[in-house]
Amino acid sequence: MGKAKKLLNDRFDEMVSTLQQVLRFNTEKTAALPGAPFGENIKNCLNFTLGLAASFGLDVYDCDGYAGHADLKGKGNEVLGILGHLDVVPANKDDGWICAPYDAEIRDGKLYARGAMDDKGPMIACLFAVKALKDAGITPDKTVRLIFGCDEESGMQCVEHYFTKMPFPTVSFSPDGDFPVINREKGIYQFDLACGKLPEGVTIFAGDRANVVPSKCVATSRKELPEMTCFQTQTDEGYTYTSTGKAAHGSTPNEGINATHRLLTALAKAYPNNLTLDFLVNKTIDTSGKRWGIALHDNESGDLTCNLGVLRTSSDGFLTATFDIRFPVSYNCKYMYESIRSNTPDEFAIIEQHISEPLHVPSDSKLVTTLMDVYNKRMNVHLQPLAIGGGTYSRCLPNCVAFGPLFPGEEQTIHMPNECISLENLRIMAELYLEAIYRLSK
């Protein structure tokens, strides 16, 4: 392993420049094309990444543009899977980025770009770790398989399709969470709530994704909203209001400021008899779910969270609200649906979008104990496995957990403006991935 570690560190500058190339692909999901189910840019990024892996001497496979993998062949039939993704959530350059989100600039020891931490940075670190093992002449017992998905942020159709063509790995980790190890992930319940009609002249638009706290909300009203005068523009037909907030990951809504909350509250005061506005304000803008009657808790994973991620008004004045709920591991999606249904007006339709049952891999499993040992020894700490509200690929297959890339105490910029990765932390995580791959592939 000494030779592999030296090769990895000697190639660090190459790793950084390669990561910059991958980050410059704008891999937000766009319209499907033949062979590119999630858009041309994502497919181009997948082609580039698989081409890079092939140049490293790895065996590559493109699964119809949904995903691809790169193999370092092992001695036996078992497979160690490493699952990450190349797609990203949208990046709005007007949200306060210090540099353009796809320029991949380095400033003060940090590489800024959408996808730097989520999930291109750690996947490129894993790719270079596998290359170091190969070039050091190490042949693993298990085949090491790097799986690059293309639709993690929008429903994980990529791996659903991929695993219809390829078998599940024997054991896996996803470098798409937190260190030391995440072995518990809350359930995900994303859905559209088809609400009632808004008052005449009222429209509301906010957000792009259920799993992002919206940083901007725009509404029109024929009535003036006194609480929103600083955001007001008057037109011949009434008033337009723009409320701003702070984006954050939908699984941690309290880390952001939801731009919809203030505007909805002001509109509900102006139109007190509208059922839709009354319900949204009095029930749904509480991120704990308590007002809605759906607050849940368990000791394994903590509290439920609720994010109002998208608002859209139809041409005939009906409002659709999209929510992202993360619920504790002791519950299931059926229970979640029944709880929402029983606490929501009958005339409001619940239309399920992306839903996923919770993940819980025992803390004393070989997978978890090995990864915990790798991390604790390298960092000279004695930490325990974590539970999160985020959803990773780990829940898509058996015997898989999330391992990094966010270090304890590190600023969380995933899904936020100025997403970045510390170059020093990139070096450390690459070493951790090298050790983890070496030990789990035995």
Question: Concise description?
Answer:
This protein is α+β, with helices and mostly antiparallel strands. The chain has ten helices and 24 strands.
Notes on the protein architecture:
The chain has about 450 residues and is an alpha+beta fold. It folds into 2 domains: about 1-185 and about 360-440, 3-Layer(aba) Sandwich (Aminopeptidase), CATH 3.40.630.10; about 190-220 and about 245-355, Alpha-Beta Plaits. The protein has 10 helices and 24 strands. It has helices spanning about 1-10, 10-25, 40-55, 115-135, 155-165, 260-270, 275-285, 335-340, 365-380, 425-440, and strands at about 60-65, 65-70, 80-85, 105, 110, 145-150, 170-175, 175-180, 180-185, 185-195, 205, 215-220, 230-235, 240-245, 295-300, 300-305, 305-315, 320-325, 350-355, 360, 385-390, 400, 405, 420. The chain has a 6-stranded mixed β-sheet, sandwiched between helices. A hairpin with a 4-residue loop joins β17 (about 305-315) and β18. The two termini are about 15 Å apart.
Kindly provide the radius of gyration, computed on alpha-carbon positions and rounded to a whole number of angstroms: 23 Å
Strand content: 25-35%
Q: What is the CATH level 1 assignment of the largest domain? A: Alpha Beta
The chain-level mean pLDDT equals: 95
Largest sheet: 6 strands, mixed
N- to C-terminal distance: 13 Å
| Structural domain tally | 2
Strand order of the largest sheet: 1-2-6-3-7-22
The secondary structure category is alpha+beta
CATH architecture of the largest domain: 3-Layer(aba) Sandwich
CATH fold description of the largest domain: Aminopeptidase
**Helix residue percentage:** 25-40%
Would you count the extended β strands for me?
24
- The CATH superfamily of the largest domain turns out to be Zn peptidases
Weakly predicted, low-confidence segments: none
- 3D shape: globular
- Our count of helices gives 10
